[in-house]
Design brief:
SAM-dependent_MTases_sf, single chain, globular, Rossmann fold, alpha/beta, 2 domains, 7 strands, transferase, 301 residues
Length: 301
């Protein structure tokens, strides 16, 4: 994960500086690993580590990838409790994990937590300062277009649209989500955009120059089919901007995302294997930290 620091500094300098510098950021990221191990131990102690749950899967795959646990789930090496960072946004990142830790992770693994509690947690995550800076820095790093028609899959409450409209003025912005209540909320959160209830991009009319896959692929019930639908909805030459948490990145954050309703957990290679079925890789910024980040293109047809 930390081997990518040079690339991260190159493309995410603003995010790093907002976190208090590279060493403060590393302290913050270390907490994500520490909490992931803590939660895994709690699941094992309760016998909940074998449940068929995306949260458990995320923890298992992330820790197995790092060699922290073995294939049977046994902890192979301990992780020292990190020093608390001093940067405001780095501390906010740690507090995200602390707040999630206050939820009983065993109940999360057994699907016994009130859905409203998790939904509120997701809403809070979307508006935190570190998250806003991370996403806006990603937009700058990929050279986000300032025109054309934009499609946002699984627009949820509309917070990504708010960030986009702060710096860009597209000709058209359409978000879709399968939840009618979330669509209504998105309309209020980001009134500049158009939000529709749809199960898939195949059900959305229009041709789009830009697709924002920013922490979205984990929601797709059938990723291969949804990406094909997105391909059909895109204009030739359109760009797909992908920022996806993966098992090689930040294990605690990945697990939190999984607990908040994610259906799938990916490695960075999984993400690329799915995307290359319909798109061509134009530019890969980073593989793992703070997420897999790249630009993919719909070629002329």
């Amino acid at each position: 994960m930390y081997l990518e620091f040079p690339a991260v500094y190159r493309f995410f300098k603003e995010y790093i500086e907002a976190s208090g510098g590279i060493f403060e950021l590393k302290k913050a990221l270390d907490w994500s690993v520490w909490y992931a191990v803590k939660w895994w131990r709690e699941l094992v102690d309760a016998g909940a580590h074998r449940t068929q749950n995306t949260f458990v899967k995320a923890l298992y795959n992330a820790l197995l990838t790092r060699g922290i646990i073995d294939e049977e789930g046994g902890v192979r090496r301990d992780v020292k409790k990190p020093e608390m960072p001093k940067g405001i946004y780095a501390r906010e990142w740690v507090e995200l994990h602390q707040n999630f830790d206050s939820i009983d992770v065993v109940k999360v693994a057994r699907d016994e937590v009130d859905r409203n509690v998790l939904d509120l947690f997701y809403s809070d995550l979307q508006i935190q300062g570190w998250h806003r800076i991370m996403i806006k820095t990603f937009f700058k790093a990929v050279g986000m277009r300032n025109d054309g028609a934009v499609l946002e899959p699984y627009s949820r409450e509309g917070h990504l649209a708010v960030l986009y409209f702060e710096d860009y003025r597209p000709r058209l912005y359409v978000g879709y989500d399968s939840s009618p209540s979330l669509v209504e909320l998105a309309k209020k959160t980001a009134p500049e955009g158009t939000f529709v209830t749809a199960n898939s991009a195949c059900d959305v009319s229009g041709r789009f120059d830009v697709v924002l896959l920013v922490e979205k692929m984990q929601w797709f019930p059938d990723p291969a089919r949804e990406l094909e639908c997105i391909w059909r909805a895109m204009a030739p030459g359109g760009r797909l901007y992908v920022a996806q948490p993966v098992v090689e990145s930040m294990p605690g954050y990945l697990a939190i995302h999984a607990a908040l309703g994610a259906i799938h957990v990916y490695s960075w290679k999984d993400v690329e294997n799915l995307l290359q079925m319909h798109f061509k890789l134009e530019r890969r910024l980073i593989k793992t930290m703070p997420f897999y980040g790249a630009v993919w293109k719909r070629e002329e047809s």
